[in-house]
């Protein structure tokens, strides 16, 4: 179809619809913001308490009238994508002011809140052991609800229209096959909550103080990576590292799978192609990291294997916890980590990256291309993953995302190079930000030029909403043009 014909079929997003859904989201954020406010009040951090309370009240006052604008029974794809892109931007922006009460500049506070809500884990804060408890909790708490996804939480709690809720969930990569959108979202929410409670109990049982264990658990299940210590996991006992890594791995498995496993048995999880791929790539990454440490750094085999396993889980789940200084690793190990961060975890999980399903699709496409070289010209091959046919729209969507993701990484990396930053560390930080991984070789910090902080912040948002949603927000025809009538 020619461009003019395509434009004739396009409808601009209805601002009233977008505002109505954002109003519901603001109400959820108001409730979520009250939790760190309570912690700040209980720990005597009155400046942060007052700001968090003011933000929650403002969100409630803004969200109440907007939510009454009414949501139509169905919403357009560009409206759903715009809501998703704006949701994460809004959720980060509203927490900048409270975080500046801890002495951070507005730009650094913005970087921190974006890193939190996108579950990335890159940080501008140092001397974490001396930071107020309320600051540490706010970071971990934002990662926790950012990990589940604000859209999913809004659907689970207050969305009513089935078709609209379904489309909103689909922008986050969710696949709804067996239940309605609200039932699906509530199941995922309950799984997430139970995983979180189990993580808190397990990490506390390893000997950490309850508050410290809670901070690690919230970040682990969300695959976020914010730690209450500057050395991340390095000062923790081995049992604590193991428990935290376990829940990072559990968070990187598709959350709806747990619900299906309850109904059909645990075999559902083990038969899932993405789960099997996750286990295989974690084992492969562990082996490569251990081999690198032994051959290139002279590390003892058992130590190399243990450190490699923790790092492999952290990178593959895009969590960002680390038991060592990554700048001390060999270039080979850093490249292995970058590949692992890029691939990420399972669709429908809290992990970042491109998601393993896209790797499986790419490998299957290569296999089909090889088959075709030896087949008759008219032969037709289906692309199948786990016995199920992959629709052409999914194939094209995966290839588009791969292309957009590559462009974002290359453009951001070039900006770092033009700013005079070292090539390898710059690429590592850009990949980590775009994959929402949070592992760092030390380049990210308060000394980083403001423009590069802004670029990494944008990369984190691009990675969390998988590029397209944020591009839709920035695309003028999304907002300018003829609109459909709003039906209820």
Automatic annotation (TrEMBL):
Membrane topology qualifier: Multi-pass membrane protein
Molecular function in Gene Ontology: monoatomic cation transmembrane transporter activity
Keywords associated with the record: Cell membrane, Ion transport, Membrane, Transmembrane, Transmembrane helix, Transport
Record's subcellular location: Cell membrane
The family this protein is said to belong to: Belongs to the TrkH potassium transport family.
Source organism: Imhoffiella purpurea
Protein name: Cation transporter
Major site of localization recorded for this protein: membrane
InterPro entries xref list: Cat_transpt
Lineage of producing organism: Bacteria, Pseudomonadati, Pseudomonadota, Gammaproteobacteria, Chromatiales
GO cellular component terms, A-Z: plasma membrane
């Amino acid at each position: 179809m020619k461009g003019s014909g395509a434009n004739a079929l396009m409808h601009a997003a209805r601002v009233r619809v977008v505002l109505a859904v954002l109003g519901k989201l603001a109400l959820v954020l108001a409730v979520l913001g009250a939790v760190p406010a309570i912690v700040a009040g209980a720990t005597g951090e009155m400046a942060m308490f007052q700001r968090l309370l003011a933000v929650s009240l403002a969100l409630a006052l803004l969200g109440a009238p907007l939510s009454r604008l009414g949501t139509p029974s169905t919403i357009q794809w560009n409206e759903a994508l715009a809501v998703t892109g704006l949701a994460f931007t809004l959720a980060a922006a509203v927490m900048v002011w409270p975080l500046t009460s801890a002495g951070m500049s507005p730009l650094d506070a913005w970087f921190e809140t974006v890193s939190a809500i996108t579950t990335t884990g890159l940080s501008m804060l140092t001397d974490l052991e001396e930071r107020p408890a309320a600051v540490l909790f706010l970071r971990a708490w934002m990662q926790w609800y950012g990990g589940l996804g604000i859209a999913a939480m809004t659907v689970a709690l207050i969305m009513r229209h089935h078709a609209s809720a379904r489309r909103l969930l689909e922008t986050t990569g969710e696949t709804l096959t067996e239940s309605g959108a609200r039932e699906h979202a509530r199941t995922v929410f309950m799984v997430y909550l139970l995983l979180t409670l189990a993580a808190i109990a397990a990490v506390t049982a390893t000997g950490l103080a309850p508050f410290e264990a809670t901070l690690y658990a919230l970040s682990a299940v969300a695959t976020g990576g914010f730690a209450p210590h500057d050395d991340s996991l390095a000062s923790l006992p081995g049992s604590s590292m193991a428990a935290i890594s376990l829940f990072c791995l559990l968070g990187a498995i598709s959350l709806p799978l747990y619900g299906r496993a309850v109904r059909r048995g645990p075999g559902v999880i083990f038969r899932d192609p993405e789960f099997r791929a996750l286990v295989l790539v974690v084992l492969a990454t562990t082996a490569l990291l251990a081999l690198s440490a032994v051959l290139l750094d002279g590390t003892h085999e058992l130590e190399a294997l243990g450190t490699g396993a923790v790092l492999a889980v952290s990178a593959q789940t895009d969590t960002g916890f680390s038991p060592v200084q990554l700048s001390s690793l060999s270039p080979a190990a850093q490249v292995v980590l970058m590949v692992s961060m890029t691939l990420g975890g399972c669709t429908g999980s809290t992990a970042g990256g491109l998601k393993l399903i896209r790797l499986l699709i790419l490998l299957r496409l290569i296999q089909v291309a090889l088959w075709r070289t030896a087949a008759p010209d008219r032969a037709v091959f289906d692309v199948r993953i786990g016995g199920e046919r992959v629709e052409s729209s999914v194939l094209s969507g995966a290839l588009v995302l791969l292309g957009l993701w590559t462009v974002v990484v290359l453009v951001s990396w070039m900006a770092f190079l033009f700013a005079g930053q070292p090539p390898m560390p710059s690429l590592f930080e850009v990949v980590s930000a775009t994959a929402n991984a949070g592992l760092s070789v030390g380049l990210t910090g308060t000394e980083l030029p403001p423009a590069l902080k802004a670029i990494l912040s944008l990369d984190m948002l691009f990675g969390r909403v998988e590029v397209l949603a944020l591009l839709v927000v920035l695309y003028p025809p999304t907002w300018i043009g003829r609109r459909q009538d709003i039906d209820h």
